[in-house]
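General statements about sequence and structure are easier to judge against a single worked case. For one protein, we set the task of working out the structure tokens from the amino acid sequence alone. This step matters because it turns folding into a mapping between discrete strings. The amino acid sequence and the backbone structure tokens for this protein are reproduced below.
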Amino acid sequence: MSDESVTEESIEPQADSEPVATEVSTFRLVATLAVAGTLAGLLIVMMNQHTKPIIDKYKAEQLRKAVYEVLPGVDRYSTLYLVNEALSLTLPEGVKESEYKRIYAGYGGDGQLGGVAISRGESGFQDVVQIIFGFDPETGKLLGMKVLDSKETPGLGDKIFKDQSFVEQFFARPDTPLLGVKPGAGKGLSNEIDTITGATISSKVVIDIINHGLEIWRPVIDKGIPSVPSESADVEVTP
């Protein structure tokens, strides 16, 4: 028996194999995205839990300093809550403090009321402008103003806290309600505040916030401010 010879010609060439298309499962894609989204969400929550107490503490400290700034001469203050349309040193049992509006009553070394500080925000040219201002209920005069938060246009709207000549007007004890006037156009009235050239809208917003805040709070304040005990855990004392 003769052996059959095998040559290259006798071997039929095999057809080139085509790449097999890998079909991605829709379920697998959705599951991957869901897992990634869950992990990202958990990271955000964990980061928020870590940073929120730090941010809250910082904001509380900035507010504390601002109260003393807009109430010159006071050395302690007490938080007063709006409860049933009246001011109260305490809140009803079991409620959330964040759900109640509040103001801050400042006292001098003699224990006399030195004024109240009111924090309020309204929409400005770019975003909400948040300020705090001091007010003397006995004389009706403004005691001071400080911008707590603002995203107004850099170089223009941010002059509401960078322009010292504008800010100082609020510490000159003007009468209320305030009246915004163009620089040089005032009549010498005791409640006039010169607006800022180039930032008229933002500066008028500050004036409006104060006037609107007094419209809301003055009737409440006029009902009476509760007496603060000489020793109270709610009283903040300057260092």
